[in-house]
Write a structure and sequence with these properties.
Layout (H helix, E strand, L loop, with lengths): L1 H34 L3 E2 L36 E3 L4 H11 L2 H6 L8 H10 L5 E4 L4 H9 L4 E16 L6 E2 L1 H9 L16 E2 L7 H10 L9 E7 L2 E6 L2 E2 L4 E6 H7 L5 E3 L1 E2 L6 H5 L6 E9 L7 H9 L2 H10 L2 E2 L4
Parallel strand pairs: 2-3, 5-12, 6-10
Antiparallel strand pairs: 1-9, 3-13, 4-10, 4-11, 4-13, 4-14, 7-8
Length: 333
Amino acid sequence: MWNLVNSGKVYFVLLIPVMCIFSAAVLTGYQYLVSQIPVVRENDIPLYRYRPFSENNNLAKLDEESNLSLTYDLPVLDGATALFPLYASFAQAVYSMSEYKETKDLVLNSRTNGAYENLLQGQADIIFCAQPSQEQMELFLEEGKTLKMTAIGREALVFFVNIRNPVNSLTTENIRGVYSGKIKNWLDLHGQNQIIRVFQRPPNSGSQTILEKIMDGVPIAPPRRENVMADMGGIINQVAVYRNFSNAIGYSFLYFSAEMVINDQIKLLSIDGVYPSRETIQDNSYPFTNNFYAIYTESNTQNRNIELFISWILSRQGQELIQKTGYAPINRY
């Protein structure tokens, strides 16, 4: 009996490394399969193509000389990734090329949360973003600073799924149901019998702030996290970017998803029967249409060119660049 018991212990001890090796092999195989699934994330955008005054950049250009030319005290610009091609085109149209090239870090891209932080710290003069989150507004109030927001154009939050997903349209209530966690299976949305893999953006990002507005007080379920085994000693939790699983749903701004990310494996969803397009944003028929803003803080030491620059953005030429870039202008000329 003693030999049997102890033999069993020996076999069990020997089995442990075998199980570990098998588990590691399965995990490695899973990680490989996941790595082959296309990803939509801001880090993949080649922003160098949108740098002002760089050769053969992709920026929208005026067909005439700008009515405003700034040759000194050029405002430092920052903002959301999706708006970078726009405010970079503003800088190229208005800024003195020689002054721009002599001065470092005039056109930044710190994304929405970083741009608000730079504005708060005085590291940026104007930022181009969606409306601030409640947390961001409170940070400025705590510092005794008032945000000055000027709507300059219109954009839309769009939702996308894998191209093979049979669902083409959702309602506003469907979106609230999915992102609150009440709707968990595509079967409930006339799709396939698959659990919905819901992706979100980070807190205080522009798109997440707009999602919160769409939810209209309905609590958002905690975001899905991909648990990736780093080694046998622990687990790293990664906030999931949108990974194009067959059962996934994600969201971004229309320009970012349709123009900056070239991905024919995702499709945009109609909402309440309206497909997101420049036309449905302009006529406000697409329900998740929102303004985006040029934002600064008012102080006695601010750059005097800020208001001149924003006034020009609202003029015919500035609005023309908004339209040429691919957004809907706030003013029609």
